[in-house]
Structure formats: C-alpha cells, structure tokens
Design brief:
Layout: H1 7-14, H2 21-37, H3 45-54, H4 58-65, H5 70-88, H6 100-111, H7 115-137, H8 139-146, H9 153-166, H10 169-199, H11 218-227
Length: 229
C-alpha cells in the first residue's frame, strides 16, 4: 500500500516501538483534540453547540485545565452550564416541568458523554481500518507491529476482538499470535519487576547498595498496562 494521508500517521505511530502503539495512537488524537478545542475552535459556533451539549469527562477536563488558556475553558464551562440549566432545570413555557424520566435522561446523557472522547472514538475507528489494511497487505508493517515493545491489556482485548471481523481468515491466526506474544512478553517482565519491588522491602534488602533493578516505576507501569492510563 502506497503512503497516503491515512497510512502515514499509522506508520509514524508504530515507528518508535516504545510502550503500547494503540495508546500512542489514542494519545496523538487526544492531544490534537485538546489543542484544537482550547484554540480558535472554542469560538466556532458549531463547536460550541457540540461542547454545550456533550460536555467533557473528568480526564479531559483535567487535561484542559492543565493548558495555559484557562479563559477558553471558563467560557466553555459558562455556556455548558447555561445549556444544562435551560435543558434540565428550567420550567417549560407551559409552566409545567418535564417528566422526571425525560429530565433524568438528559442528565444521564451529559454525565456519560464527552466531546473529546467522541472525537477520539471517531478518529480511532478510521485509523483502525487503515491499521488492519496495512497488516493484511504489507509484510513490512506486520514485522513492525510484531517488533513493538508491548500491548496494554485493554488494547490487546480491543485488537483481538476487532481482528475477528476486520481481517481475512488467513491473517487472523498470525495476528492473534502477534498480539498475544506482545502482551504476554511484557506481562512476564512486568510481573517480575513488581515482585522484585515487593522483595526490596524485606529487611535483608535495605542496604545503600540494594539493587532495585527496573522495579522502581513498576507500580506506575502496571497501572498503565492494566488501564491504558
């Protein structure tokens, strides 16, 4: 497959061979969406209609809050809160409240939606189509995939589940084996590091020259492996 506007981003994401490539894919889309929403897009009427309706999840509120442009976030919060007041907590023109069920559905929709998450999901679905096409058609890409450092557990699950419908049967077995090998290899090393970390709290390993090996950040790596975060 020739390099295209779709294949270039996928190839670039897989080149570093550091960590989980699907996490990198998610992080790239996430970073670009946060940058977009905190920039000029904040003043685009169509975008504000979407953010007013959907809002944001805690993870992406925190990422936006970490940006320098706090005014953009405040303005989005202002109109989002105003929309929430209008849609859920304002009396209808007839003087009657909506039914509790109708109002609760609106509250639930806001609580379970996020503008950034929806854009990431949209982008991931398209990049995954390209990913599976590359895996089927390009030997070099199959080798690149197999040479990754790891797959985190949630993305291992996602790839294997989607591979069943996205890949031709002749490639499915190899793909599942590649995914399993990447995940199991990293899991073995991670479990050893966490176990070594625990052993270092034994009184016999408290000297200044105690060898922690690769275990000091094993807790953080284990959490990321299990959750993608």
């Amino acid at each position: 497959m020739r390099e295209s506007i779709l294949t270039i981003p996928v190839n670039e994401i897989f080149e570093p061979r550091e960590g989980c490539p699907v996490c990198r894919m998610r992080d790239m889309l996430e970073s670009r969406t946060i940058e977009y929403i905190m920039g000029a897009a904040m003043m685009e009427p169509d975008v504000r209609i979407e953010t007013n309706r959907q809002g944001f999840c805690k993870v992406h509120f925190e990422q936006m809050r970490a940006c320098k442009n706090r005014l953009s976030l405040a303005l989005m919060l202002q109109t989002h809160l105003q929309q929430l007041q209008k849609d859920v907590f304002t009396k209808a023109k007839t003087g009657m409240f909506e039914s509790k069920t109708a109002k609760q559905k609106k509250v639930s929709a806001v609580n379970n939606d996020c503008f950034v998450c929806s854009k990431i999901e949209w982008g991931m679905s398209r990049l995954m189509v390209t990913f599976f096409e590359l895996y089927q058609k390009e030997r070099e890409f199959r080798e690149l995939f197999a040479s990754q450092e790891q797959l985190c557990l949630p993305h291992y699950d996602m790839l294997v589940a989607n591979g069943a419908s996205a890949l031709e049967k002749k490639w499915l077995g190899q793909f599942v084996n590649d995914c399993t090998e990447l995940t199991k290899k990293y899991l073995d090393a991670l479990e050893a590091d966490v176990s070594h970390y625990c052993k270092m709290y034994d009184y016999r390993n408290t000297s200044k020259n105690a060898d922690w090996g690769n275990s000091k950040d094993s807790i953080e790596r284990a959490i990321k492996f299990l959750t993608t975060r």
